Amino acid sequence: MANPRSRTRPAHTAGVTLQQVARQAGVSLATASRVLHGSGARTVGEELRRRVEAAAEELRYVSNAPAQALARATSNVVGLIVHDVADPYFGAIAAGAMRAAREQRLMVMIAATFREPGLELEYLRSLRAQRARAVILAGSGTTDTEATERLAEEIAGFEADGGRVVCIGDRGPDLDTVAMANRSGGGQAVRGLWELGHRRIGVVAGPSELLTVRHRLDGARRALRGLGAPAAPDAVETGDFTREGGRAAAVRLLRARPDLTAVLVLNDVMAAGALAGLRDDLGLAVPDRVSVVGFDDVPFAADLRPALTTVRLPLEAAGEEAVRLLLDPSGDEPRRVDLPAELVLRGSTAPAAG
Amino acid sequence: MANPRSRTRPAHTAGVTLQQVARQAGVSLATASRVLHGSGARTVGEELRRRVEAAAEELRYVSNAPAQALARATSNVVGLIVHDVADPYFGAIAAGAMRAAREQRLMVMIAATFREPGLELEYLRSLRAQRARAVILAGSGTTDTEATERLAEEIAGFEADGGRVVCIGDRGPDLDTVAMANRSGGGQAVRGLWELGHRRIGVVAGPSELLTVRHRLDGARRALRGLGAPAAPDAVETGDFTREGGRAAAVRLLRARPDLTAVLVLNDVMAAGALAGLRDDLGLAVPDRVSVVGFDDVPFAADLRPALTTVRLPLEAAGEEAVRLLLDPSGDEPRRVDLPAELVLRGSTAPAAG
DNA sequence: AAACGCCTGGAAAGCGCTTTCCATCGCCTC
DNA sequence: GAGGCGATGGAAAGCGCTTTCCAGGCGTTT
Question: Gene3D superfamilies under this entry (chains A, B) (predicted)?
């Protein structure tokens, strides 16, 4: 029964249709539709309802989502665009988003740009073609104004088509956004180090065109200035948003500025690399010789040795909030959710020597 | 121009259709379709082709994928079902799959079961409703025969509808599968420890109903027997496939069997927990007092301290191969790709004392 | 008892696209 | 110069579903 004759059978041979279910139940197509996918706006008599359900069960009917999407002009698919699924930062956001999606019975279509800027645009367009009901832009915005503009255009098009867009992290004032406290986090990290007695604090940053990096750095600098840090030239090194990028940048930083007693790394993955670089390449003890603070508090941060002091961001919550925002039938006002950052002290920081 | 009047505008107001493009270009719908989405089977004259393209550009036409899916009875969507996107194991697989998907211009719809067994079935069904062209089952199979059977039924249905299914890890002999060398890996880990002089080797395993766990454990046991390990009762503790699960199980194991000099943890995430448990809860030095070997070689394994000796699995490659298999127009023969495991020695293992 | 409204069920018009037929047309072959 | 053929464009029939109308059948209301 229901024997799959051949694995290569042409696709169009397949699939039980609602029409068949209706026929088998002896009712009209309309009635079958109302029973099986009805929005509750119309009731169907007990007897017919039973018959339709029995027929569907017997024929092993599976509804055809594309057809429904076409007829209804709306789908239950949401898109999620990230830089890299393997990065724990995005993994956590995705996990939150998917948990919320499940509650709302949404399917999520995920796209990874692998940090290629052009791909974000391309995927947004594909998602638009898929008639996704909404999309979440989880990656950071950039300072590249041309790219930003083209993206804004595509977003406008998407919304004109009836879709919704929410950004995780600021991208523009008229977009729904879930913002994490990057500035505040940068500030907290600096103040935490300051309280431990550190006065010469360096920063390992990610690519400077990323808004996220900008904001974190900005928060750190502002705090430094506010505290009246010695007016030395900024000690900032930039690297890729990867472990190796962090390692190389940290090594460069401490070679150039051996006087530093602490470094703030603007991303945990980079911080893992920094820890390795300081230890293995430079032979500098953490935290005795130099304290290290990371950013994000990804799951493995606590397992590094020394355990990483870091700025915790509610990543999963951000993913969940984003989905919530998508469904929320907003008026014309763009929505905004602000999520806090919190410094978590662990073993990679210690009072400044002396 | 293309002014999004209101963010809440009903969806059906929206969208430029092919029909409109055709009209604007002064050609028939058929011609427009052939120009814009043609499979190359038919050629369209230079002049008309130009006009259609210009019209599409001018009207900012975006094709409607659900409508195409309906008309063509096939889509460019593939499903990917994982246990947990935030787990680096699945993160790596997903990254590989998405990279391959991008090359093939496929969109991937991802579903996370959060390790709830029933959800796998449910999502497979949803993916079937979406008329996904194929799905990748990335999570481990289980020994629960009833669940397995119901899944097999759903898979058969999916294939009868013209879809393809690829499993990562064995699920059944008649399914396309990408298999990683779990047994061999378990064996290699044990032999590695043996060569270091360890004779009393314990195992921290994940949930025993998971096939992956079974295979890894099986490989380890077989190696142990082959090497003529002392016929003591097996020292195996089981825990959740999480950091905390690994921590608790490792603590239990070493409390019950303080004579062990080495433990193989069947998953890196659990191994991170085990390292913490041995150090913080039991005060046992790794690797001096007890050596630890993990499994998977997820990215952070090398950053743990001591760096984790582990069995490396080509996770990304598995994801890529899975997608490749999906597209490969197989005959009726189920395909199979075998991927090797390799023991990577790092700091968490040392020669047995004495 | 006539008129009204409500509740159910069905017919049928799409939703946006692909693809199969036809119809042309210019060109080549014998 | 008639018959054929390949290349090109269009008409129209769906793909599987939702939803708007309509048509009856009842129970109420005056």
Answer: 3.40.50.2300, lambda repressor-like DNA-binding domains (1.10.260.40)
Asked if residues A4 and B334 have their Cβ atoms less than 8 Å apart, the reply is no
Cα(B217)–Cα(B272) distance, integer angstroms: 19
B30 touches strand D (CB under 7 A): yes
Q: Angle at Cα B308 formed by Cα B302 and Cα B309, nearest 5°?
A: 115
- Please tell me whether any atom of strand C lies within 7 Å of the Cβ of A70: yes
Q: How far is the CA of A19 from the C1' of D27 (A)?
A: 34
- b/e map A26-57, b = 16+ CB within 10 Å: ebeeebbbbbbeeeeeeebeeebbebbbebbe
Closest CA to A304 of A216, A217, A238, A243: A243
What residue in B sits closest to A164 (Cα-Cα)?
B7
pLDDT in tens, A198-231: 999 999 999 999 999 999 999 999 999 999 876 5
The closest CB to that of B94, out of A85, A128, A243, belongs to: A85
The mean pLDDT of chain A is 91
SS (H, E, C) A140-178: CCECCHHHHHHHHHHHHHHHHCCCEEEEECCCCCCCEEE
Is residue B65's beta carbon less than 7 angstroms from any atom in nucleic acid strand D? Answer: no
Which residue is closest to B10 within chain A, CA to CA? A162
- Measured in angstroms, the CA of A343 and the nearest CA of chain B are apart by 22
A29 in contact with chain B, both atoms CB, cutoff 8 A: no
Chain C nucleotides near the protein (CB, 7 A): 7-20
- State the pLDDT confidence band at B108, using cuts at 50, 70 and 90: very high
Domains of chain B, start order: 11-63 (1.10.260.40), 72-180+316-339 (3.40.50.2300), 182-313 (3.40.50.2300)
pLDDT in tens, A5-48: 333 333 444 689 999 999 999 999 999 999 999 877 788 888 99
**Residue A282 touches chain B, beta carbons under 8 Å:** no
Output the pLDDT for position A354.
Answer: 64
